[in-house]
Amino acid sequence: TVTVDLVELYISRNGNDLDANAAMLNVWVGEKVAVSVASRGEFPAVPGIATFEWCIGGNAIDGYTGYSEGDVADPDGPEKADEILLTGDEIGNQSIDFYWIDGGTMEISVSANAIGQAQIDDASFVINSPNVTVDVNATEIPRFTVDGDGKDSVDIGAHGISFERSLDIDTSNTYRWTQIVDYDYVTARRLGELPTTYHRPSGVDNRVVYKDEATVSDSPLLPYNHSGYTEVRREFGAKMYLMYRRSSLDSIWVSLYTTEWSFDWTVEKQIGVWKFIGVQSPPTFMTFEASELPEWFRIYKNDSDYVPIL
Question: What gap in Å lies between CA 142 and CA 120, rounded to an integer?
Fold first, then answer.
């Protein structure tokens, strides 16, 4: 028979008992939180005797693979971005690392069992977020343009839709813009034929990949004078993310704001002249605080050819 003295467990972070060190309970969104079960006394050194189970409140993940601190806008990458979820194996370890991707007050707890002697400890964390806002301006309407090569196109105004981040004087806070194109469809009709729909595969926008500017804008254009076509419609939808990282800490990039925006225009050739059909309206948009991380598995390239939808 194995007998075990009752041990008192507690949650430790960086060697500190969280019950006695309130300063350890303040973290930044995206900051790495590494905690473990410590005890006053020893767990039995018998395989399988001690078991652990963590419960992490809020929106916590194991990591994010998109880019590192040194990455900049690059039309050739990064090819992929994924949110890495916590697994059951990690939840059952004596130690666990994770990242909260939204702010607020969150609870963690752990239970341990040694020869039937179960104990639970918990802690409340305050997850801080930077105090910034996003202002979106979308007042311009679709228009015909002629570029420097004499090619006719349609865009959504000289400035299109713009996204501006408010000023932050804290130099430890780093920001990036990232845009995901959800869909980009072009439906074209030739005289006497049924319309054909084409698309560019969705993905991260190669013009706005972790762009390090206070303000970014987008005005997607499309040539409309394809030979033989009499009507062209374009439907476009994207999400612009304001990403944030606390550069002075071991942390990952997280999303603070998301703007969903879209437009839909149609032009028609009438007696040899292209004209807009219906109301020429600015892009529609909606901005909200969101911890959703941008994920993708390919790059949307603005200069790529449209391919038919089969």
Answer: 61
DSSP for residue 282: P
pTM score of the predicted model: 0.88
Q: What are phi and psi of 88, to 5 degrees?
A: -65, -35
- Residues 210 and 178: beta-carbon distance below 8 Å: yes
40 vs 20: CA distance, rounded Å? 14
**DSSP letter at 296?**
B
Q: How far is CA 298 from CA 64, 79, 180, 246, in A?
A: 16, 5, 10, 27
pLDDT tens per residue, range 52-106: 899 999 999 999 987 654 444 454 556 688 899 998 888 998 899 999 999 999 9
Residue 138 half-sphere exposure toward CB, CA atoms < 13 A: 21
Dihedral pair phi/psi, residue 60, rounded to 5°: -115, 140
Query: Which residues make Cβ contacts (< 8 Å) with residue 112, sequence separation at least 6?
Result: 9, 37, 43, 50, 51, 52, 53, 118, 119, 120
Question: Do the Cβ atoms of 209 and 73 come closer than 8 Å?
Answer: yes
Contact 54, 123 (CB under 8 A): no
In total, the chain counts a number of residues equal to 310
Alpha-carbon span 81 to 65, nearest angstrom: 5
Rounded Cα distance, 154 and 142, in Å: 7
Q: How many CB atoms lie within 10 A of CB 264?
A: 15
Q: DSSP letters along 145-214, please?
A: EE-TTS-EEEES-SS-EEEEEPP---TTEEEEEEEEEEEEEEEEEETTS--EEEEPPPEEEEEEEEE--S
Q: 204 pairs with which residues across the strands?
A: 180, 299
